[in-house]
Amino acid sequence: MFRRKEVERILEQARRMDPQLKMFGVADHQYRLGSPVDLAFVRTIEEAYHFRFPEDYVQFITEVGDGGAGPGYGLYPFGYYCTEVESTKEAKAREIYLRGLGRELKLLPIESEWLEDFCISKEEYEKNPEKYFQGGKGSFNWDNDTPYGFFHLGTYGCWRDFGLITAGERYGQVFIHNTEGGFELEARNFQEFYQDWLNSILDTKQFQKELEEWRRIRNR
Fold this sequence. Notes:
alpha+beta, 39% helix, 6-stranded antiparallel sheet
């Protein structure tokens, strides 16, 4: 279970080490979390669309923070779903997406000859072949081109999003999904996923090394 004060302490450490926000993705969130959302709102959405979030994710967005500081370009705020839509098209897309969260995402092992098609390097695959999958038949909602049962948490850019599985045997796990249809297991649950990112800040030696690399890239 996360505590907001403890998470804020770690984020403050990151801001002190990276005051110019040179680390990849952090210019968007600046190592800051959004305000928590109300638990009643989360439950209302779940009941309306017949799915259930893992409790570690619910605890985080209702007690720690909703959106902001996190891996990649940061976490998307769930509070978006209580904002007014700007068009009929947006309202329809939101409805289709939320209704798809209760359907199982069926994942199948990737055969090595398909790696290139799914933008997965042979080297990474050979290290951990059990981490890589492709969507099985009936796993995608072609009305909005997103996987069923996959709640988008954020993005790493380059058409690689990360998200929570919200239905089926892999419920609660975090996967990376690329637009070519490949899936990579990122963490067993949200708690592990976010703690891994916090640990990357707490490892000050490694954090400083990565920061220097990004500074060199941005100063070219």
